[in-house]
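Reopening this one. Same input as before:
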Amino acid sequence: MTPDDLVLTPRGVRFAGRVFPCSIGKGGLSNTKREGDGATPTGTHHIVGMLYRPDRITKPAEWAIPIGPRDLWSDDDQDSRYNTLVSAPYSFSHEKLRRADPLYDLVLITDWNWPNSVPGHGSAIFIHQWRRPGYPTEGCIAFRRDHLRWIAEKVSLGTRLIIPQA
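Same output, byte for byte:
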């Protein structure tokens, strides 16, 4: 592990010499992640993208991509584009990335079950803003808004996210 890694610890995520409180999935940590289990998958993942709402925040990094009104993320394991960015209208089950709440104003995309996704092994494992301290996610890692922004300004494509075995 290096200081440039995001490392989940019992106190939060350690990154760049700081520890940030975070929320994880309501299903806890899982060594055998499945779609819909609410768990955060263990292992070493990488940051492979960054999305942001340009109508709500400024661009956090040069490589960040704006979230548009038609942007969705497929979470349907019957879909050939499962666990990828897709556009509306879309007939398969999906998550809207442009949400009314601020949870996805800034999203770091991980390579969990990507780019060669296995149907049913989990989708949309992101790093995003939390609802409130201690409120669990559906499997993502979530931070306070200002902490997320600080992290996003300092991570790079390929930064490792290390989640120890459950």
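So the earlier flakiness isn't reproducible anymore. For the record, The two ends are 18 Å apart (CA to CA).
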